[in-house]
Write a structure and sequence with these properties.
- By secondary structure, the chain is α/β, with parallel strands linked by helices.
- The protein is built from 21 helices and 7 strands.
- Strands 2-3-4-1-5 form a 5-stranded parallel β-sheet, with helices on both faces. It has a two-stranded parallel ribbon with strand order 6-7.
Amino acid sequence: MDLFDQSGRENLAARAPLAERLRPKTLDEVVGQGHLTGEGGPLREAVERGRVGSVILWGPPGTGKTTLARVLAASVEEEFIPLSAVTSGVKDLRAALDGARERLKYEGRGTLLFVDEVHRFNKAQQDALLPALEEGLVDFIGATTENPSFEVTAPLLSRSRVLRLRPLSEGDLETLLERGLSELGVGISGDARDYLLRLAGGDARRMLNALEVAAAGRGRVEVKDVERALGQRALRYGREEHYDVISAFIKSVRGGDPDAALHYLARMIEAGEDPVFIARRLVILASEDVGNADPHALPLAVAAAEAVRLVGMPEGRIPLAQATTYLASAPKSNASYAGINEALADVRRGATPEVPMHLRNAPTGLMRKEGYGAGYRYAHDDEPEGMNQRYLPEELAGRVYYEPKESGAEAGIKARLDRWRTEKKRREAERDESPQ
């Protein structure tokens, strides 16, 4: 390499985006993904071993897949050959593999082949990798944002370790933001900092690119600078708005207004609210406010929460919207919620009398001799449909905690319990009137 090449490289490096300039050089400088890079982690072990093998890094954008590949190549002192599955074909892949063979033969150096968006390679392209992996010609890292189970061929999967990358935490993003501010030599207001962190959504590249544009020609970054850089207005969404908007959201769902609920859901999504937090609140509401009026509400809310964890954002907005509109439109009952609260209140007041003898467990002869379990009537063998004998302690006889509403499916539950309670009272009255 001559002086002109060196000058060109330096000029190119100076023009590189902030995210590129801040790429770590060693594994210790990597922010986040401690489960992979920390002591005992698979990537740490690969560096100590001096060979990467075949790895597929699976995770959301901006979580460090390319960064980790470059760091690993430098750490094991192999030539780093990057390919993009979007622009490269079998010809490019074979040229890279031929180069790796020549490098190994004449220089004694290994090659780490990195394929970004590997899920975009078709079957023939993925199959072209297999012989090189089988003979150990190259170490291989494939990066994908898609589930490898669906997008990567079985032969390539069987020869690779799949390592899952997690979205960067707020603490990780703050660390990178500080590095970016130091690199640019600028300050930042508290509101602008919060906005950038919310905007990132776990994507470090997105945050750093936005910071670089916002900081151009300024000594201190304000919210208006970030807004100008992105061409969009920052929603006011501080600590107070966090509580106010989620409160309005839950009350709109509870009150049966899907349109208002979607409005507040959109505000939270646009402001960068944690979608898992929203999903958790919907799961709670499904039991607290819908309950047995629609027994499908809770499983649907749980499924929506799991879907959000599985697909992430922005697609996660779709199951969130489905659960929101279903729960808002469902019949409502808080009878289960009110019932457990009343029962807990009694227990906390000390209303915990002895368990009736006929309901007690009787695993030993001594306990049976003492009367444990005596007189218990097995419900499935008994003629009465329900409440075939006394289950509450005598001191709480007649206490009613669960009072179903005349709403949705719970209306049927109410009719059934009313019938059982009426029949139970009739049987008890007949017993009281019968001669002893």
